[in-house]
């Protein structure tokens, strides 16, 4: 059993990271901690994709020394997905942080329960 975990260390690590991020997202009331939890979940997904795209003994998909056989290189699609995901997650994080600053300026708190309570009082 332990050997199986050691063979798939990247996958096990990505599952653990995803769990940590999900726990932070669900259990913390602070908006900054929720954003950090979401970023940890993103990182876990990227690690999983990169681990699945890697094949032992194969090189990067750059033709060198005239080797054009497909079985000499890894699949470049997971790497491209990871790079695209990183760009998107940085943009989403920037947007979330900007919205968090706006909420803090309006409600002077980063506690979700307090902000929701104040919003409901404003509606009444």
Structure notes:
Keywords: Cell membrane, Membrane, Transmembrane, Transmembrane helix. There is one protein chain. By secondary structure, the chain is mainly alpha-helical. It is built from five helices and no strands. 73% of the residues lie in helices and 0% in strands. It has a single domain, classed as Helix Hairpins.
> Under the CATH scheme, which architecture would be assigned?
Orthogonal Bundle
The poorly predicted ranges are: none
Q: Characterize the biggest β-sheet.
A: none
CATH topology group = Helix Hairpins
Tell me the number of structural domains. Answer: 1
The helix/strand class is mainly alpha
- First-last Cα distance: 58 Å
- The percent of residues in helical segments reads over 70%
């Amino acid at each position: 059993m332990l050997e199986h975990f050691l063979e798939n260390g990247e996958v096990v690590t990505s599952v653990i990271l995803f769990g940590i991020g999900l726990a932070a997202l669900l259990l913390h009331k602070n908006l900054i901690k929720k954003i950090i939890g979401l970023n940890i979940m993103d990182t876990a997904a990227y690690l999983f994709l990169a681990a699945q795209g890697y094949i032992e003994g194969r090189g990067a998909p750059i033709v060198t020394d005239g080797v054009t056989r497909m079985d000499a290189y890894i699949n470049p699609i997971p790497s491209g997905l990871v790079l695209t995901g990183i760009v998107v997650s940085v943009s989403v994080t920037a947007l979330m942080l900007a919205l968090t600053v706006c909420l803090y300026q309006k409600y002077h708190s980063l506690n979700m329960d307090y902000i929701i309570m104040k919003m409901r009082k404003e509606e009444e």
